[in-house]
From TrEMBL:
Protein name in UniProt: DUF4872 domain-containing protein
InterPro entries: BtrH_N, DUF4872
Organism domain of life: Bacteria
Lineage: Bacteria, Bacillati, Actinomycetota, Actinomycetes, Streptosporangiales
Butirosin biosynthesis protein H N-terminal domain location: 14-142
All copies of domain DUF4872, residue ranges: 155-324
Organism: Actinomadura rudentiformis
Amino acid sequence: MTTVSGIDARGMQHCETTALGVLLRHQGLDLSEPMLFGLGSGLSFIYWDGKNLDFPFLGGRIKPFDLTRNLATRLDLELLVQETTSPRRAWENVTASIDAGRPVGLQLDSYYLDYFGSKVHFGGHVVAMYGYDHRDALLVDTDQQGGAVSTSLTSLAQARAARGPMAAKHRSFTLTVPGSLPSPQEQIVPAITACADAFLNPPIANLGHRGIEKAGKLVRTWLQRTDAPQRDLPQAALLMEKAGTGGALFRNLYRDFLAECTQVLDSSHLRTGHGLYAEAAALWTEVAALITKAGESGDSQCLVRAGTILGDLSRVEREAMQALSRLGE
C-alpha cells in the first residue's frame, strides 16, 4: 500500500470542506470547517426543477468546486487542477501526486463508491485520496460516510468517469500553501461581502433570496408534483438536513462561520448578520420537518406552512445579507 504519511483523516460535515481540510492540514494550515466554508463564500440558494429531475431540488451552496476556487484565491493558495477524458491519464495524475507524498482531491459521482450509504447520483461529490494499492484506494469523506474509508479501484474509476449534472472530467486537484500566507482574518470581509452581493443580486429568479421566495410559492404544490409523495418529499427534506449540508441547508455552517468571525471583528453589521442567520438556520430545519410530515401524511397544510416560512426566510436572509454587505464600508 502506497500512502501519504502524516494525514489527519478527519471527516467533517460537508464533502468539499472535508477534502480541503485534509489537503490544507497536511501542509500545516488548520482552519475550522465553518471558516473554510465562509472564506470560500460557499453559501447560496437555488430552486432547481430541470427537465432531467424527477422532483425539485433545493440547493444551499454555490456550484461544486467554486468554493475551492474561491478559497484558493482568498488565501493565495496554488491550485493545480487536472482534467482529462482518459481514465489512464486520470489515474496517473492521482498516483503521481500520492507517490510524491501529497494527498489529492477528487471530484466524482458518489453513487459508485463502495462505502456510500445513499445510492443517489451526485457528480459534484468531493473526496481526498491519500493511498492506494493494486485493489483499493484510501479516501477521506465526510464524518457521516465514515471519515477515513476505502473503495475498490474499480468503483473509483466508475465514479470518476461518470457523466451527468455537475460532473467533471476525471477532475483531480492539489493545493500548495505559500510561504507567506495572508491572514485568514484579513480575508473575512471580502469573503462575506462577495457572498452577500451574489445572494442579493441573483441573475435569475431561482437563485439567492429571490429563489427562496419562489420556493415558498412552489413548495405548496409539491404533493401534486409527484406520484410518490411518501418517497419524494421526505427525500427532499433529507437532502436539506443530512446530505452533507451540516443541517439547515448549510445555514448552520454559515451561522457558525459568522460566530467565529465575531471573535476577531468588532462590527454591529456582523453581529446582526450572525443573529439573523441563527434565526434562519432554525427556520430551515422547521421547513424540512414540515416537508417530511407532508410527504408522510399527505397533509397539504404542512406545505402551506412551509411555504409561509420560506417567505419569511427570504426576508430574513435578505436582511442578513444587506447587513453583511455593509462590512466593506
